[in-house]
Structure prediction request, 1054 residues.
Amino acid sequence: MITFEKVCKSYPGSPEILQNINLEILSGELVFVTGPSGAGKTTLLKLISAIEKPSSGSIIFESQNLSRIKDREIPILRRRFGMIFQDHKLLYDRNCFANVALPLEINNMSLSDMNRRVRAALDKVDLLKKEKMMPITLSGGEQQRLAIARAIVSRPSILIADEPTANLDKEYAEEIMNIFYSFQQVGVTVIISTHELPSTKINFKRLQLNGGSIQNLIGHVQLPS
Amino acid sequence: MITFEKVCKSYPGSPEILQNINLEILSGELVFVTGPSGAGKTTLLKLISAIEKPSSGSIIFESQNLSRIKDREIPILRRRFGMIFQDHKLLYDRNCFANVALPLEINNMSLSDMNRRVRAALDKVDLLKKEKMMPITLSGGEQQRLAIARAIVSRPSILIADEPTANLDKEYAEEIMNIFYSFQQVGVTVIISTHELPSTKINFKRLQLNGGSIQNLIGHVQLPS
Amino acid sequence: MFNYLHNHYQAFLNGFSRFINNIGASVMMMIVIGITLCLPSAGLLLIENAGQISQNIEHEAEISIFLDRSVSKDQIDFIDLSLEKNSLIKKIHFEPKLIAWEKLQSKLDVAVSSSVSNNPLPDAFFISLNTLDEIKIQKLLDSLDGIDGIDSVTVDGNWIKKLRIGLSLIKLSVFFIAALLIIVLLVVIGNTIRLQTLTYKDEIEVSKLIGATNAFIQRPFMYTGILYGLGGGIITISILKLSVLGLNATLIKLASIFGNNIIFQDLPHRFYLYIVILAMLIGLISSYISARNSIQRLKIYK
Amino acid sequence: MFNYLHNHYQAFLNGFSRFINNIGASVMMMIVIGITLCLPSAGLLLIENAGQISQNIEHEAEISIFLDRSVSKDQIDFIDLSLEKNSLIKKIHFEPKLIAWEKLQSKLDVAVSSSVSNNPLPDAFFISLNTLDEIKIQKLLDSLDGIDGIDSVTVDGNWIKKLRIGLSLIKLSVFFIAALLIIVLLVVIGNTIRLQTLTYKDEIEVSKLIGATNAFIQRPFMYTGILYGLGGGIITISILKLSVLGLNATLIKLASIFGNNIIFQDLPHRFYLYIVILAMLIGLISSYISARNSIQRLKIYK
Ligand SMILES: Nc1ncnc2c1ncn2[C@@H]1O[C@H](COP(=O)(O)OP(=O)(O)OP(=O)(O)O)[C@@H](O)[C@H]1O
Ligand SMILES: Nc1ncnc2c1ncn2[C@@H]1O[C@H](COP(=O)(O)OP(=O)(O)OP(=O)(O)O)[C@@H](O)[C@H]1O
Ligand SMILES: [Mg+2]
Ligand SMILES: [Mg+2]
Prediction:
């Protein structure tokens, strides 16, 4: 589904973050991107979602070359993604319901469908009781869950999550992981950056980014069940 | 230094978060506030820094009653605090140096002193190389460290940190904890909310907030050395 | 198609709610537009009125031909005939000396005129011309000079020239001011919308990140701009209408001083419609340009 | 004290850098202020000029007293004496019939006047009064009526009254427009500053959270407002100065048409200073009020 070929990425005025990355993510896979702070995890996810373009090499997403994508094709691409950002990027002048409804609004969905889908998503992250509240009144962990609800509401074919459990205690973190698993079960490709691998028994692929920006590709790992 | 007497806190339109809290934090103590997501950790820290006022009960800070503090006394109070927020609250239109310099500007410090102090703080969190960069170009963990630099630059007498290591991998998290310890060593009161206690050997006090918003006060704990 | 309409309807609702949420800014924008457009509109009113006056004036004399006091009826007829043959002459008016004297008497004080026993004035022709061309007029004057019975000829046209030059100067400056003010409005509205996009920058960034097109994001701002224009236009025409009514009421009260021939003509009603449409266009154009620029420039992940 | 100055210096630098960072918005604000203030300033110019003209006019006649054609030298002297005793009368001007006739002849067409053989006009006194009080004037007229040798009395003051009423109407409307425009400016600048505080809301929130006072936060905005005013004021006086120069140059060119007695008096130089100070005050006041409100209203932690 996603193929990196000799991808390098450097930001203007700083050394190369990613060097000569080759990797393949198959449709329906669950992928963890790990590595120390500053290793380039977020950068990798931004490359996949066409927020950044590679300095060299090519990224192929379903036969579309993201390094040469046109600006006006990006919105169509992004609507297929569900994205959870490290800093949540919630809208603090809309309530929880409206935050989650935003992707559906952009997809021009009818009001009744929207209602149903938003409620279902909020329920999944245990925030249905708070649908009328403003995000600013939510705790850090609740905000993180709200961001997850917004990512899953439009039933994306790829879920990209940047440290989605950073602000959550163990219990909630596991619950959230379970949501991701359940999406993977129905065929969604899930890519998660984290600095802590989950302790549940599940098949996943791990991409370890080292601080020196060399990538170690570790194959499918089966945790002891 | 800080005393809570029968403190209750509820937000308009929601049930009580904190019920009848009594606690005492002594000058120079290292305090961890723990508890599940939504238990009220952030709320507790906001009460101490006079961002929120208690619904009932009184909070005494050095013989000043924070429940009855006047609006114009708050800035003077806050300048004694170093605060690290769960969502960092960095200014994205100023570079790293200027972000850290902000508290000193407010204190009306001369440029040369400012330069020295800001550099020292950035060095402590390992960001001196990035002083000219904009926060947006920092990784999640780097932003968190920047927020820490801003909190310590004005040499506060109290450090209040809301999940300061959420976005950091184990190594960096330990480094940051060491910074907090070193502040405590020189007499600064340090209050940290976290969902993961540090694994280092050190004396600390732990305030456990349960989801039911009843507080368990656990005394000084000496980890096995 | 339905989708497209639904899209615009949603954008309109969104723009309207922003308009309401910033009602302070909205009201002030509308007042600014309203008052600013008043100026060129009032100018338009003036031009329309002045134009009518100057048209009425056009029919009056431009050349006065005074005849010898001893002129005979035949001579007068002959002069009349030769004037009527001349293609340059648009209109001929003969004023017998008796009527001229009566007019002068009514202009001078009664006390003065009553003491004058005999009519000192001659018969006269007053003619108006098709042309303002100096050379042709000079030729005409030369030809008139040769006719028997004509005592003297005076070109009266100067003051009309003055009026016309004055009017066209006013017209020019009104258009100049109007253009200037419209530019100012475009800039002011554009800047307000730009500042507004800045206050919505989080929403814009997030919308872009989850797949909204620039067109989608900028549409509500355009509706806000149109609403500003609509409100401003309505304020303009209200002020204008009230001014005309108020002014005319005052003029009627002051009729004893100024004479009651000065009544402001109201603008035709379609002009009011034009003003509102112009205001809405200004709102649309400025918000379109500034929202577009601002949204394109807003880097995501900032 | 040093601290205080240092504080303000920092705030000024901060405000100045915001002014520069938003140079687009700043330039447009200054243009808006500049053009808006032009209007009342131009009005001031007009009033100053018109005031001078009307002062010159004040010395002319307001009552005309026409004497009998058969009046004797003694009678004229007697009338003159009794007029001079009257305290209502400011100025007396006697115009012998010969002079009046010459004046009329020069006004009428040569052709007409040359055909009038004998002078039809009487001697006349033209007097101007200290008062415009209708009752007093009526009394005076009654007393004049009784005097021998006076044929008729006419109050000529109407056109001056008209001019005065016109002038005071213009004055009033200029002040009205000025007040209106200053309010508009206050609102526009205030709103721009308010929108700007919104774009700086993160900075304001964080500053509050780490101990900045409201005064500290709002100071840079006030300096931005003052800078807007300064720039706008300079634009106003530049436009004004250029207009006066340009207009006078044009009037001199058109002297052949309009006569060369119309020359625009420039405003005294201190007026230019006043305009700039006024503009800066407007900037200060509006930015103070709006930044204050906006900053107080901005809840920390939103
Ligand atoms: N826009 C940018 N311009 C310049 N440098 C950047 C930019 N974005 C990221 N960087 C740098 O690239 C490096 C990798 O950043 P990235 O955000 O990918 O790290 P990360 O692995 O996500 O770290 P963390 O776990 O702390 O979030 C960092 O050193 C960061 O400073
Ligand atoms: N301003 C507010 N208005 C209403 N409810 C609020 C407000 N702030 C917080 N709450 C609610 O109070 C509860 C406790 O919030 P708080 O932020 O203190 O939790 P926390 O312990 O910090 O959680 P986390 O670990 O997720 O950050 C949450 O359920 C939250 O929704
Ligand atoms: Mg990251
Ligand atoms: Mg919290």
About this structure: The first strand of chain C starts at residue 63 and ends at 67. Chain C touches chain B at residues 301-302 (CB under 8 Å). Residues 158-199 of chain C form the longest helix (42 residues).
